[in-house]
Amino acid sequence: MSIKTEEFLLNLGPQHPSTHGVFRIILTLDGETVVKAVPVPGYLHRGIEKLVESRTYQQVIPYTDRLDYLAGMLMNWGYVHAVEKLMDIEVPERAEYIRVIVGELQRIASHLVATGAYAADIGGLTGFIYTFRDREDIMDLFEMICGARLTPSYMRIGGVAADIPDGFIEKCRKFIDYLPAAIEEYNGLITGNEIFQARTKNVAILTPEQAIDMSLSGPVLRACGINHDLRKVRPYSIYERFDFEVPLGTKGDCFDRYYVRLLEMEQSAKIIRQALANIPEGPIKGKVSKVIKPAAGEAYAEIESSKGVMGTYVVSDGSTKPYRVHFRRPSFVNLGYLDEMLKGWKIADVIAILGSIDIVLGEVDA
Amino acid sequence: MVMDGKPLTEVMSELTNKYPTLEVSEKGYLTVPVDILVQFMQDLKENYGFNYLTNVTGADYLEYLEVVYNPCIVGQPEMLHIKTKVDRNNPQVPSMVPLWGGAIWQEREVHDLLGINFTDHPDLRRILLPDDWEGYPLRRDYQWEGGRD
Description:
The complex is a heterodimer.
Chain A: E1 8-12, E2 24-30, E3 33-40, H1 48-51, H2 61-65, H3 72-87, H4 93-122, H5 125-146, E4 155-156, E5 159-160, H6 168-191, H7 194-200, H8 208-213, H9 219-222, H10 230-233, H11 254-278, E6 297-304, E7 309-316, E8 324-328, H12 330-334, H13 338-342, H14 347-357, H15 361-365
Antiparallel strand pairs in A: 1-2, 2-3, 4-5, 6-7, 7-8
Chain B: H1 8-18, E1 23-24, E2 30-31, H2 37-48, E3 52-60, E4 64-72, E5 82-87, E6 92-94, H3 103-114, E7 117-119
Parallel strand pairs in B: 2-5, 6-7
Antiparallel strand pairs in B: 1-2, 3-4, 4-5
């Protein structure tokens, strides 16, 4: 005789620390096993795409800070890059170098949050403290360069807001010199941890075919071994000048998604080091009129953000305000496969799988 | 280089020959009539290697709606900009989910904010706004309180 059992619903979030914000998943469970998962985004929807229809082109920039608020610089960049494409604006060399430096610093900062938060998700809260300790150095650098830590609004259409201040290059170099020791420490504390490995290895394996079909991008895609990084594939800005590699995973499991980020930090540091050594003198903003009024038309452009491909679609009707702006947000698209990824795993794995995607709700919900 | 070794310009001229109703703008943006959209997209995916649909979005032009697709090829620089015009009174467009699964949430977003119905979409529900929300905020004639002019 077998015991009669039945499935039940478990509501995870929106107020749950492991959902990395206000994300909600309605789980149908059979004991501890997930039978069905229905993700419910939207709790942080502010209607940014609607709001910016009544802002000027420059006024859109602060809104982009609030998409992926752990990678504000990269969000700024994605937007200004599209407007520059729409208007055929040339960005001066020095500004491009500064963008690369702050962009890669931001990638490291974002991956530090992902790494630490992931360790905490798995139960190792100490990891969180260590990565946040080091991220603080990047926040200090950003404060130095633009006065803000999370919401830089530092990029401008045609360049950047201000030149780098005295002492920035030295401080930045000091951080880059220190970073390998920090990564060594995370490897000892998190990567090499037996419990961490048991919880993440072979969990929620994505095949390359699934990842491509579902338009996944960033570390989630590259963990499956797919070499698709826009900095290499479709080099924008001045990325073709730098010598760096694109770290790839082999298995496509949670561990690979985690580890690819650590390796990417090393590559970002490599890029920053080259940029600091070669940054030329010159203007930091191109010839752009104070009133930005693109000719009627449209453009779509993408950059490689820390979480994946960040695209911006801009339509101009010839006025000073954009007719339509759309942001292709990487973690929004990356979540599209979550329901399938969770099926068949235990409830504790749900946290490990969601954490491995590295989402930010400001960006998911726009 | 596209997967079978053809450069993008050659692919574009081949496509315009094959589909006479295709419009190509000065910047190379393609406008595809909605009745041949599925056939066209299937051709792109199967015969030209466009295996990755990076972006799906839309816009309202008051006389009509438009859906925008940006397919590309993993590991290669090419990206197309494809648009299709949709009747504003009966906004029906075939879903791209059967071809590229990645359209699933993006089409839900377009449906939610612009009110376009994607036929054959496996799970067409609002995604960012509450289920009982009235209207489609990204339509240009959407009335709302607050904000700026």
